[in-house]
Amino acid sequence: MRTPLKATFMAAMIGMSGTELLAADYKQNPFTLVYDGALKKNEPGKVNIHPVSYKLNGLDIAANVYTPANYDASKRYPVIVVAHPNGGVKEQVAGLYAQRMADQGYITITADAAYQGASGGEPRNVDKPASRIEDIHGMADFIAHYPGADTGRLGLLGICGGGGYSLAAARTDKRFASIATVSMFNSGLVRRNGYQDSQVDTIQQRLQQASAARAQEAAGGPVVYTGDVKLTDEQIAKLPFDLYRQGFEYYGKTHAHPNSTFKYTLSSLLDLMSFDATDQLELIDKPLLMIAGSKADSLYMSEQAFAKATGTQDKQLFKIDGATHIETYWVPKYVDSAIEQLSAFYARTL
After folding, report:
1. Which domain holds residue 313?
2. Is 0.70 surpassed by the pTM of this model?
3. Rounded CA separation 138/132 (Å)
């Protein structure tokens, strides 16, 4: 049986030990964007970025809206809501895909999840499915009133954990005319069973730990966090999955952002471990496109969800040849491949 320390080590996914030394790129961008090709200024006639904030259930939500080239507020544009990965923020891969889809003529929005990033909420880094799903509804609420937004042509795009939560949101939120995911990650399944079922034998033990953390919070004690284990490069190299190893490089080095962390409240597991992104997917009756790398060790999650989405006949699972999970976040040829599929999908369905 795995020890609690080993279980925590596995659940951490990736450490952030390199963040302090290598998270410098965000300082070189006025919008703190950390992806290749990121906007550095707004120019007439080109894709522009607009930092916005709005209230969602009393919390301040920080978001970026991207408008297409030659944007005219008096005209009507299709819209795409973009949900970011677990531990990610709007300045990373979600921003990249939002900007690239704005290149295609869409108004796009991506927001930091409540309790995370630059958005409000205490304690920090609560990571509960209900909140992440509500974030998606909230982005749709806000963008519906943005000048030029055609809410009759509203699409949804979820990346990694945001993909799983997008599937859950789209089950009931029929404002979304079509739904797409990139490298979908079923957060509840992984928090419950471990990645590729590597922690099934510690489920009850981890639920006990989460219950104790909740009790401690309720009694006014300190908030207990998990997922913030500090790992050396040597330890990272020994992690058993590509997602973890490459995730460290992406989040801890090449695309690091100070608001991005895998630390989350241990008590969140009470909600996470009873959640499954594939539950009731038959309620999705709109066009669905799922994109994943052919070499991604997370591919099984997209395949499981795709099989359960029986409510729509208009669905496709597209595998990017040769790509791993994290490589769909930034490797130009794989991002280009995903954007090509998304562009054709949304052009047809919106």
Report:
1. 4-349
2. yes
3. 10
